[in-house]
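User: Fold both of these, please.

Assistant: Here is the first one.
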Amino acid sequence: MAITLVNPSGLPKIDVYRQVSIASGTKLVFIAGQVAWDADGTTVGEGDLAAQVEQCYLNIGTALAEVGGSFDDVAKLTVHVVDWTPDKMPALLEGISRAAVKLGVTPTPPATLLGVAALDVPDHLVEIEATAVLN
């Protein structure tokens, strides 16, 4: 595995992700922002943030598998949530947890969470992009 996830002493320990990702691989993989589309382009979980987060993670897993990687190779995530407010955190975490179980991964790599006004399609509540490092 090309990625080691760390929570350094002196920084807060956050359960849903690690603060630092150490990459030792040789191939960078940049995955475009994934939305809650299935393979046919149909939105999964319309109006359900947790379901959409889960689908985004699963889509990232699919993209990584195509290039010989897995979610364990993810060095960094950027999460864009429409009209973000802190009360949406439980749904976000639920979606991450459900996807982590399906993908067989834990913990989540470092992530940045951004609130945005809108995404490409009005039904999309979240978009997640990933950077991975493969050997």
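And the second sequence with its predicted structure:
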Amino acid sequence: MRNRVTSLLRAWAGSTDAMVSVGGCPLTAAMVSAVGAVEVAVHAWDVAQTCGHPRPIPEDVAAELLPLARLFVTDADRPARFAVPLDVAPRAPAQDRLLAYLGRDPHWTDNWK
């Protein structure tokens, strides 16, 4: 699966001007790739935390994804798709700012084990 996802992302990244339709909305392939990158990184963090095997989002990746998340996730998405943003220090690591913007507690751990 990892190989297929990587191939798909490479194809999208190589065709930045290509248009695709998502839910009847025309979007560039680059835009779809950017949204996908935010989704994959943050949901991978969710799953790792839940499984008790925390894996941080690399600082450089989180720093690139944060402005994209701010572009894609608006007040209209809250609270239906995302929780309200949480407060974090302005100089907190990019991962913490990204997760908090998307309504996740960067220090959350699943204690169900």
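The helical segments are 2-14, 29-50, 59-72, 94-101.
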